[in-house]
Every structure is written in C-alpha cells, then in structure tokens.
Specification:
The complex is a heterodimer of chains A (140) and B (676). Chain A is an alpha+beta fold. Chain A contains four helices and four strands, in the order ααββααββ. Chain A has one domain. A four-stranded mixed sheet of chain A has the order 2-1-3-4. In chain A, helix 2 runs antiparallel to helix 3. Chain A starts with a helix and ends with a strand. Chain B has 676 residues and is mainly beta. Among the domains of chain B are: 108 residues, no CATH class; 79 residues, no CATH class; 160 residues, no CATH class. Chain B has a 42-stranded antiparallel sheet that branches. Chain B starts with a helix and ends in a 7-residue tail after the last helix. The chains are: A alpha+beta (140), B mainly beta (676).
Amino acid sequence: MRNSVSRLILLVILLSASFAGYTAADIEINTPAIAALKQSMQQRHGQLEPYYARGAVGLTRDGLIAMRDANALPLSARQPVNALIASENQDRNALYREIARANNHPEWEGDIRSTFGQRWIELARPGWWYEGAGGAWVRK
Amino acid sequence: MVKLLVKILSALFIAISSAYAAPLITLSVDDVHSPLLDAKGIKASLTGPRASLLEITLGEITVQGKIWRNLRFSCHAFQFSGDLISCDDGVLRLSKSAPIPATFHYSSRDKTLDVKIQMTSGEASEGWRFSAHWGGAAWEGVLTVTNGQVTRIAELLPDKEREMLASANGKINGMAKLRGNAGGLANIEANFAVDGLAFSDVSGLHAGENISGEITAKAERQNRQPGNLWEWQADMTWPLGEIFWQPIYFTGQGHRLHVSGSLDDDIIRLLKGNLMLAGIGEADLSGVVDRSSNTLRDLDLRADNLELSALFSQVLKPFLENTSLTGLKAAGYAGIYLRYRNGASELLTLNLRDVSVEDERERFTFRGVNANVPWQARGVSAADISIRSSQLLRIPLGEFRIPLEINGQDLAISRMTIPVLDGEFTLENFRASRQAQDWHWQFSGGLSPVSMQKLTEALKSRPMHGTLSGTIPKVSYTGHTLEMEGALLFKVFDGTVELRNLMVLDPMGRAPSLVADLDMRNLDLDLLTGVFSFGNMQGRIDVAVHGLELFDWKPTKFDASVMSSPGNYPRRISQAAVQNISSLGGSGAAAAIQRSFLHIFEEFGYSKIGWSCSLRNGICHMGGIASEHPAQGYVIVKGWGIPAITVIGYNRNVDWWELINRLQRITQENVKPIFQ
C-alpha cells in the first residue's frame, strides 16, 4: 500500500488527459520536488490509512483530506490526527502547485487539484468516506 | 421561585375547588408574559373519578431567552383535600425525553413542598429531590441529587444546549441549599461532585471523557446594598479525566480553580481568582463580564512562574500545528501579565527565564533565553531579549541581545550584531508588521568575514578555505516570499562567489522553492580539486549558475557553465582528474587520448576547460568549450603543450541524479584510476 500513493500520482497523471486541452504525455511529474513530496506522502499514508478505514478522515472533492468524524477517535488522538491532516494537506497543495510549476503552467493548479480530487476518490478503498457532489459525506 | 409555584398552585386549586362538582375542568391559556418567563399554549385539565387525573401541557416556555418546547405533566393519582395537594405517580415529559416519574406533596398547613424524581437506572438508584418549607416571609429549599444521571440534566436543558450535550453521560451527587425571603432568593450553598462525566458535540471537536470533579459554591444577596447585588465564591477541582476542545487536549491532574466576586443586574465581577494547573503553575485572575452582551469586558491575568515545557506542549503547541513552527520544543520558565479593558488587550508582558527552544527539524536551537517583552496597545515599548547560545542550520551563534522596539503590531530593531563563528552578522533597520494575518518584514545587513574552514566544519561538509562575507542591501519577506536585493559575496578557493537575485517562496513551509543566480570567478582549481579529492588540476575557473531553481532545496532547473578564467596561470591536469572527468559522462563519454602514452605521464598540459549543463526535467544537457567544434561530441579539456591531453565528451544528456551519484562516488571513495 505504501507504493499506492506514488502509483496513484502516476495514474492520475496518465489517466487524466483533460488539463485544458493538454495531453497526458505532456505532463512532467519527475522532478525532485515531486519525488520528495511523494516520499513524504507515502510515509504518512501508513499512518492515515486506519483513520480512512475507521471513517475518522475522509477525502474532499478539492483533492485534500478532512476530519470527517472525530468521534471515531479517542480524545487524545484527535489533535495528532488533525496535525497529520494538516501536514498531508500541505504536501498535497505543494504537489499540485509543483506539478503545475514543473510544467511551466502555474495556471493549471486548479485543474490538477480537481483532477486529483476525483481520482483519489475513485481509487479509494471500499469503506472509505469521501465528499459527494452535494458536499455530504458518502461511504464508498 | 417556590413562592411563585405556591401562588400558581393555590390559584389553580381555588379554581378547581369552585368547580369541584363538575367531572371535568379544563383551563386553557394562550400566552403568559412575565419578567421571569413567557409561556405559550398552556393547558390544564382535571378529569377522572374524584378529579384524580391531572394533565398539564405547555407548548413553549421561555426563561431568560432559553426555550423549552412540549412540556407535559400528568398525574393519575392526584389528590386534593383541604390543605394537602399531592401526586404519587406523576409523569413528566420534556419534548423528546423518556417519561420521568415524579411525585409531589404540598401542604399549606405544614407549609412544605416536596418534589421527588426517583428512578432505578442500571445498578444504582437515582434520585432528585427538592424539599421546601416556609414560614412568614422566609423560606428554605434543598435540592438533593443522588447518583443523578447527567443525561437527565441534558434532557432538562433548553433545546439548543441539549443538542450540544446529546451524548452526555456520568453521575452527579450533591446538594444545594437555597434560602429566600420576601425579596426573593437570598442565599445559595451548593456542593456537587461529578463522576465519569462524558460529553461531546456532534462533530466530536469539543468533548470530554471520564471526568471527575467537584464544585463547592456559595452566593449571598447583599440586602444592605441598593439593587440586586450578590457576592459569590466557588472552588473547583479536576483530578481526573480528559477534555478535547479543539485544538487543545487537556487531562485532569489535580487542576484547581478558586474564584470569588460579585454579581448584579449588569455585570459579573471576578474579584479574585486563582487557577492552579498541575505541572504548569499558577495564575491569578480578576475581571468583569458584561451580562447584557454576555462578553468579557475586563481581565487581569498574572502568572509568574509557569513551567514552559508543559505549558508549551499542552496549551501553545496545538495552535502552531499549521505553521512552520509545529515541531518546536520549549523548556524553562515563563511569566505573563495581561491587562484587558473594555473588550480589548491594553497591556501584555511576557517574561522568559532560562528558556530553551528547539526545532525538531533541526533548523534552529536557542539556549539561555532571558527576555522581558512588554507590549501595549498604544505607544512604543522596548523589549530586552538576550540569548546565550544558539544554532541556526547547525551553524553555532555566539551570545547576542535583541533590542526590540514594539509599537502595536509593528516590530523594529535598529541595529544588532550576532557572532557567527569567527565573524559577525549585522542586522540593520529590521521592520516587521502583521497585515491581514500575514507577517511582512525586511532588513538590511552584512556579514563580516567568516572562515570557510570553520563554516564547513560546522556544517560537517568537506573542509574549504577562504572566507564568507557580504553586504545585504535589503532582504524583504512579504506574501510568503523572501527576496534579497543586492549580492552576497563569498571568498572561497582564492576566488569570489556572488549570489544575486535570490528569492525564496514559502521559506518556512514544507516545500520551499528558491531562485537565484550564482557567479563564481577565478576559483583556484588546485585548492578545489584538493578538497573534493577529484584528482589534481591546476588553473583557474569561472563558474556561472544562472536561473537556478531549487524546490525543497533540490535543484530543478539551471543553466550552468564552467570555463577557464581569463589570464595567465599554470594549467595542468592529472591522470586521475582526466579519468574522473571522462567517467562523469557515463559509458558514452570517452577521452580522446592516446592510451599507449598515457601511463607514462602523471599530468598533462591544457589550454582551456569548458563544460556546461542545462538542467531541465531532471536531465542535464551537456556541452563543452563553446569555441571548439570537434567532428563528434564536445571538447571539455583542450590540450596544449607537451604532453597535452584533450578530453571529449560524447554523451550530451545525463540524468542529473545519476551525475550527482557518480560525482559523489568519485569524491567520496577517492577512487584511484587504473590505467593499463
């Protein structure tokens, strides 16, 4: 599962040929910065996985993650999980910015974010929670 | 309240008795307005044999802005005889709550009222009892709670508050005594203990579990004073349990709060408060709460000796979670004084004693910090901060003082010096201000020569000689971007290094990116190759790295070139260096050398060195001396004299990280080339 994050990043890029008319083949994803972010996200993914499965953390439509139900966690774990979510979102925001920047199209950031948002949700495991089209949480 | 109840009951039963002969009595009132409460949709009926069935319903009742809806009380064994009114099997229902069995006895002869709620929940018997008696104008009531379920209180709460405590749990035991006279309630004494208290809002971001605690409170109306003035005091202890109030997680470890003050129609005044946080320290409090707006108007808070390690990790650190300071550890002692008046902070003084601050990401460490930082809402104040020793990116800094001027949200330092190894960093005209949640700052300064040998030792990198110095006309930070005007000048390897056009985006964030131009001139190759064990070369080179872009401190883009400096100087290259240069280009690169003669000579002459690398998308696109155009490849070293050697590279593209790995292998392993 550790590799799933990097596989997912690759998949998202390869499967989404919809960046404002640019084809997937044009997308640069092999920069040290992206590699560093991928590594950081992979390391964190193992920690986040049980919280996705428990429904405490869910995937949002804007390509980030959020606390869905803090009640699923012991009180002492709620702030550490909040911190984990904040770190993950910092990395995700940096990833979208860097992919756009590495391709010399900073204006793609919004498209990249929403494409990632959709793909993270599509590739989520059954039982995980995500933000549906209406904004309500949906269990996959 | 009791008096009011007595009046209502009397009035009700006078009405009933006048119509006692009738089997059915119904009373219906649309609206009742009073200064104490408003009620709508009131219905009361007395039916059944001997009028023994009492039903009272209330559509909505509002007390002090709090609303309850759908209250219903019914009694199947209602008795009314002369001076006694009683109900032994009443049931109270509050909107969605389960039926609550209730009994009451009212005796106008004995002047007593006794209301009981008795239930068996789980293994414990739960009881709520209110007994009152009166004589003349005075009355006394006692509320006794035995194993009371906190859920019960939650059910009795107004609609909005009940939602907040939907899953409240725990037990409550204790007693409250209320005394009154003609003027109303005059005295309250209460002692309650909670055990196993748990609560949570729907989101789970404000919750507590397994909380035990005790509260003892007293309040007395001051009849000598005009108006409705009360004096009160309360003691609370919290020995056990945990609370999460986002973002703070706090456990009960014997924390105590003692408060005393007064209360009138307009304000609640805290005259004296003492908060003792176990493991952290004590704080004294006083203040005023405006009752009409339900806001804090004034507050004085003083704490002299707080244990910073626990205070930081439990209270302050959670607020830094989304910032670059998230991985901080602090120790030492802190004092704080806050003066808050009319809804705004007037004065805040922070004292630090022998404090150390450490960044878990090893970006900085400060030790022996002593500080007095006064802040006032109006006017300028001067802070004195001294730091005994510190490290910034592993570079040790000597003792220094920060003469900080504070003017509202603006900070300024006119001049300060920080010892850096054997040199000194001078900071001038520092100005910082907070605008729209973001900090903006700028400074100018300079670095007096720092020995490169000491610097490389500190950074645990290969030893270099020379000095590092520079003048910084202006560095500014605004909109998460740090920008340097002017140039930083290093003197290394007997040449100069100039760093210009430096800009760092999000420097304190998780993925900072940097752009800059770097020009190195006249570097002594003998010194340079000596340090990096590359194989000896003699001569001088100029290195330009333009359009350098780093992300997370790793290069992503640049146009770099290395070429021989102009001028006359000895130009020699060793066998080892030739081989290393050749191997850098990978298997596709080869030296156009006459191998049969090579092993005879230790070193060769050359006239020019030239190599360029444009890094794009992880690939270094290489070239050689611009003026040379061999039939194939590019010339890296152009031979001259006897014996001469020309090195030609054939591989134009190489993976950047592969190139770095090769360079590291060569310089770290100090590989001795073997010539056959």
